[in-house]
Design goal:
This protein is of the alpha/beta class. About 35% of the residues lie in helices and about 15% in strands. The longest helix has 17 residues, at about 105-120.
């Protein structure tokens, strides 16, 4: 969407509302419109766009469009909130200010700034939003998130899905229009967006909704596969140090989700995508715990892709870098769906050249170079391994 003169002169919070309303309502039926002659199509997903997301997300938008993605899915952690994001502080509008932006000024406009710099570049590509733990760091809250992003949480696709569920799947509990968990069917794939930001867990109400939805999917012949997205990885993964393992409710609810999906994949393909960890890692649930027959002996395909601009983390101890394990990178996960609903995934890395090509007018070349080379400049020591056997 091109910035009109009117939009350029709107206050930042008004601009955010205008952009969300336009993006969510224009081309409401565009999701799934891009398909190859063989019936295949693509979608893009990633999370964690704090710190340098205003620099990285426009490049993700350009890459997703070039890949013909039918939609983009953000898995949460939009802005840092506990401090001023580096990209926010570097915006040209602050260049002549006597002091850097204060935390109070930042908190007032952080989410509107996210919409302007990170949602708007996607134009008419449908943007689905998840919630991360940074969205509920005080003084922000889940309630504020639901108000700020009501337009994205009640996208036409999600509204239509709720109507279809009410008409054809009475067993699925109804959810509010601005619920932070939702799902949408597209070309035989059910995309399930979960919220595990409440004490690193999923509450009973959401679990009941998930169970009913999964039961309906397994009975529905029109659903060929299931893709689950959530911010924090499920328990007993290679990413246990920063996951649902950080609380007892998180472990219990996460294990429930995993076991349900492990059983479901005996009937239909299942895939799980998370972020929270700021690296790219495939096969995250291929662990001794889940391979053990005492725990079901089933590995669910899973990925972690927290590479949308957040300060980058080292890989977990014992994980060697390679094509399926990348640290200190930016990028997104591209899902390629065949006509039968089977999904294959590929990581699309974005180098500095890609970031410079999509640099907006609010940023200098030096700011982009900083985000590419720094953020951080040196990898910190790997975190100590965490055993997912109790509250940490």
């Amino acid at each position: 969407m091109k910035n009109s003169p009117i939009l350029r002169h709107l206050p930042l919070h008004c601009l955010a509302v205008a952009l969300i309303a336009c993006g969510a309502n224009a081309h409401a039926q565009d999701a799934g419109k891009v398909a190859a002659d063989d019936g295949s199509w693509t979608f893009a997903v990633s999370g964690d766009s704090r710190n340098c997301g205003n620099v990285v997300m426009p490049a993700i938008a350009a890459g997703a469009k070039a890949d013909g993605a039918s939609f983009y899915w953000h898995l949460g952690d939009l802005r840092a909130i506990y401090k001023v994001d580096e990209d926010y502080a570097a915006e040209r509008r602050f260049k002549n200010f006597p002091y850097p932006p204060s935390i109070s000024d930042y908190l007032h406009t952080a989410w509107a700034d996210f919409t302007q710099h990170e949602v708007a570049p996607f134009g008419d590509t449908p943007f689905f939003i998840g919630i991360g733990n940074h969205e509920v760091i005080p003084p922000k809250s889940r309630t504020q998130f639901r108000i700020e992003f009501a337009g994205l949480l009640d996208r036409p696709e999600l509204r239509a899905q709720r109507t279809r569920d009410a008409q054809h799947h009475a067993g699925i509990p109804t959810t509010p229009a601005d619920a932070t968990y939702n799902h949408w069917n597209l070309r035989g794939v059910d995309f399930i967006n979960l919220d595990n930001t409440e004490d690193h867990s999923i509450d009973d109400e959401q679990l009941a909704w998930f169970d009913a939805l999964l039961d309906a999917d397994l009975k529905d012949d029109s659903i060929h596969s299931i893709v689950v997205g959530l911010h924090e990885p499920l328990p007993h993964s290679l990413s246990d140090d920063h996951s649902m393992c950080q609380s007892v409710p998180g472990i219990r609810s996460g294990e429930h989700i995993y076991r349900r999906l492990a059983a479901a994949q005996r009937r239909k393909p299942v895939y799980v995508i998370a972020s929270h960890e700021h690296y790219y890692l495939a096969n995250v649930y291929d662990t001794a715990y889940w391979r053990n027959r005492k725990h079901g002996g089933a590995v669910v395909p899973g990925w972690v892709v927290g590479t949308s601009g957040a300060q980058r983390y080292p890989l977990p101890q014992g994980v060697k870098p390679g094509p399926n394990a990348r640290q200190h990178v930016y990028g997104y996960l591209l899902g390629h769906v065949d006509k039968h609903g089977k999904v294959t995934f590929a990581f699309r890395e974005l180098d500095e050249a890609a970031l410079q090509r999509t640099r907006g007018p609010d940023y200098s070349e030096e700011t982009v170079s900083f985000c590419a080379a720094q953020n951080p400049s040196l990898l910190p020591p790997p975190p100590k391994p965490v055993r997912c056997d109790g509250a940490q």
